[in-house]
Design goal:
Elements (H helix, E strand, L loop, with lengths): L1 E3 L7 H9 L4 E8 L6 E9 L1 H11 L3 E2 L2 E2 L1 E3 L17
Antiparallel strand pairs: 1-3, 1-6, 2-3, 4-5
Length: 89
């Protein structure tokens, strides 16, 4: 899942605690600033399908650290270099 609009002081532990209310969190990757180490405002959470759907329903729009979260389904497969589909001519 994609989670956006995180506060700059968000930590993996805090986000894990928030999402754990809906099931087991397999992994968390928060984007952080290279120089300051602070959260850049978004990240990716991995959970089981039904638990992820419950987390999306329960957390999208919820206030966390004074900000309204944006939680969406994100398929991380195919991300990275060369993942764009080529158009056939």
């Amino acid at each position: 899942m994609f989670v956006g609009n995180l506060p700059s002081d968000a930590s993996e532990d805090g986000v894990r605690e928030l999402f754990s209310e809906f099931g087991t969190v397999r992994s968390i990757q928060l984007a952080s600033d290279v120089f300051t180490g602070r959260c850049r405002g978004f990240g990716f959470i991995e959970m089981e399908g039904h638990e992820a759907r419950a987390a999306i329903a329960g957390l999208d729009g919820k206030t966390f650290g004074g900000k309204s979260l944006k939680v969406r389904y994100e398929d991380t497969r195919g991300r990275g270099r060369g993942s764009k589909k080529r158009r056939r001519r």
